[in-house]
Amino acid sequence: MRQLPAAAILATLLAAPVAAAAQEAGDKGKGLDLALRVCANCHAVAEGETVSPVDAAPSFEDIADNPGMTGMALSAFLRTPHRTMPNLILTPDEISDVVAHILSLKDGG
Ligand code: HEC
């Protein structure tokens, strides 16, 4: 019983930096720029593009239109090494920028 609050506080502390970074507004122009350089080999990254070069890679519009997709979920995803995206390492700024770009494609932009 006594350990529950401590665990809750720890969880909050651990989650806080991620949440703060996710809420920080990125620069979507820079995000598009980065996406064109780093992500476009596999993903359709720009507005109006729906067919990705790599079949298995969802277009950024599809990612954005996924109702469960939030800036926080995206940032968390991009911070984690991903099996199909080897060596994809972005700085926190790059993550905010690319997340801002992806979220700007929401609602069939
Ligand atoms: C080498 C090819 C490749 C590159 C480069 C790449 N991706 Fe991916 N990505 C994939 C594939 C394939 C998937 C889908 C399969 C999977 O999730 O494992 C994916 C999945 C994702 C997802 C998850 C979508 C979802 O609905 O869960 C996100 C977000 C994403 N990529 C973002 C990016 C961003 C941002 C970049 C550039 C910074 C990038 N990717 C670069 C191949 C790539």
Automatic annotation (TrEMBL):
<keyword id="KW-0479">Metal-binding</keyword>
<dbReference type="GO" id="GO:0020037">
    <property type="term" value="F:heme binding"/>
</dbReference>
<keyword id="KW-0408">Iron</keyword>
<dbReference type="InterPro" id="IPR036909">
    <property type="entry name" value="Cyt_c-like_dom_sf"/>
</dbReference>
<keyword id="KW-0349">Heme</keyword>
<feature type="domain" description="Cytochrome c">
    <location>
        <begin position="26"/>
        <end position="106"/>
    </location>
</feature>
<keyword id="KW-0732">Signal</keyword>
<protein>
    <submittedName>
        <fullName>Cytochrome c</fullName>
    </submittedName>
</protein>
<dbReference type="InterPro" id="IPR009056">
    <property type="entry name" value="Cyt_c-like_dom"/>
</dbReference>
<dbReference type="GO" id="GO:0009055">
    <property type="term" value="F:electron transfer activity"/>
</dbReference>
<feature type="signal peptide">
    <location>
        <begin position="1"/>
        <end position="21"/>
    </location>
</feature>
<dbReference type="GO" id="GO:0046872">
    <property type="term" value="F:metal ion binding"/>
</dbReference>
